Predict the 3D structure of the following.
Amino acid sequence: MQRKDFDKIAERLRNWGRWGAEDQRGTLNHIGPEALQRAANSVQSGKMFALGLNFDKNGPQPPGMRMNPQLYMTAIAQVMNPNFPEVVFSDDVVHMSLQCATQWDALSHAHYDGVLYNGCKACDVLSTAGASKNGVEHLANPGIMARGVLLDIARLKGVDRLEGGTLVTVDDLRAACDKQGVSIQAGDIVMVRTGHIDHFTIDRNMMSFYMNNPGVTTEVAEWLYDHSAAAIAADNLAVETTPMESFGGSEMPLPFHMLCLREMGLPLGEMWNLSPLAADCAADGKYTFLLAAPPLAITGAVGSPVNPVVLK
């Protein structure tokens, strides 16, 4: 994308100061009492789905990229009282990249021109100790819960998975809304299914999942802004399309990230396993539900693992 074209969009979508000079939750502010009540009212059948990948050494990150989780036991069957040796405990630690699997991008995750969401200067707020502003802990408190709306683009196109590099457009999202009988309302979290995660969850092909993802176009950021969406999540690597060779060949790499995180303050959920939920939605025709997806309150982190849970 040309920088001059990007800048025009960015200026229109910029939410800096909209919720106050010190705001660090961005578009999650759209999730007010009315939106939460609408989310609660969407529960009808009592069916529950977990949308997170397992966090383990066999995760989706290839060698040389983010680190898949490494679990170490620090205590195994340790006796607490020698007088009662049959009573024991175990303990453990985990070493991992916080964005190695199903996760939220915090508003500090990506920026340009040395400035983050709400005008924070990167030189003032980013250091080896983390992000002193726009850290993921602000998304965790009071949390992320809203009405989720699944837009099944793969099913709309009549395929199990979109081909690599396929662009999901605003027209695709509108068509999915029409076909599924849903509309996006203020405070909703939009969930886009491409089917791409099946390369990892079903085929166990890490590299097929990692390379040449289908994803949303830059214009989708404008659509989210116009609908006052709270966040977006998808079942691919980065929500937007990510052929790796494009990272260094554009004046604004990952433009959707920059518009959402830096300009709008809109969190991105990545690598969500939407296929089991999508199959159930197709069966019962219900594509809206209560979504609970609070990140871990890791102070200063630029992202967080999450296990999103849907209640229909």
User: Anything to note?
Assistant: The mean pLDDT is 95. The first strand starts at residue 48 and ends at 50. DSSP finds eleven helices and 15 strands in the chain.
